[in-house]
């Protein structure tokens, strides 16, 4: 799978980061949500919190970086 970063800079205090894939999807890199919540992710899944600003930046960039 090929990833292209469209927002965020994990490792530079701007995590999470969002990537487009060559599969026509998005991937989010960030800290796992460890606070108490009522959702139990399935095996191999995790919850990652995404600030609105990062999601909006990624949405605006998707057209510019789309690989498909």
Question: How do the helices and strands follow one another from N- to C-terminus?
Answer: EEEH
Alpha-carbon Rg, integer: 13 Å
**Contiguous helical run count:** 1
Strand content: 25-35%
Query: Could you estimate the helical fraction of the residues in percent?
Result: 10-25%
**Largest β sheet strand count, sense and barrel closure:** 3 strands, antiparallel
Low-confidence region ranges: none
Summarize model confidence as the mean pLDDT. Answer: 81
Spatial strand sequence of the major β-sheet:
1-2-3
Which class do the helix and strand fractions yield?
Answer: alpha+beta
The rounded distance between the terminal residues' Cα atoms is 12 Å
List keywords for this structure.
three-stranded antiparallel sheet, 1 helix, 21% helix, globular, alpha+beta, 68 residues
Write a structural description.
- The chain is 21% helix and 28% strand.
- The chain is built from one helix and three strands.
- β2 and β3 form a beta hairpin.
- It is globular and about 35 Å long.
Spell out the blueprint of helices and strands:
Blueprint: E1 3-9, E2 14-21, E3 26-29, H1 52-65
Antiparallel strand pairs: 1-2, 2-3
Q: How would you concisely characterize the structure shown here?
A:
By secondary structure, the chain is α+β, with helices and mostly antiparallel strands. Helix content is 21%, strand content 28%. It has one helix and three strands.
């Amino acid at each position: 799978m090929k990833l292209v970063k469209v927002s965020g800079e994990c490792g530079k205090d701007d995590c999470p980061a969002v990537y487009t894939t060559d599969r026509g999807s998005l991937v989010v890199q960030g800290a796992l949500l460890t606070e108490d919540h009522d959702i139990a992710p399935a095996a191999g899944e995790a919850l990652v919190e995404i600030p609105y600003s990062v999601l909006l930046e990624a949405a605006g960039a998707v057209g510019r970086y789309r690989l498909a």
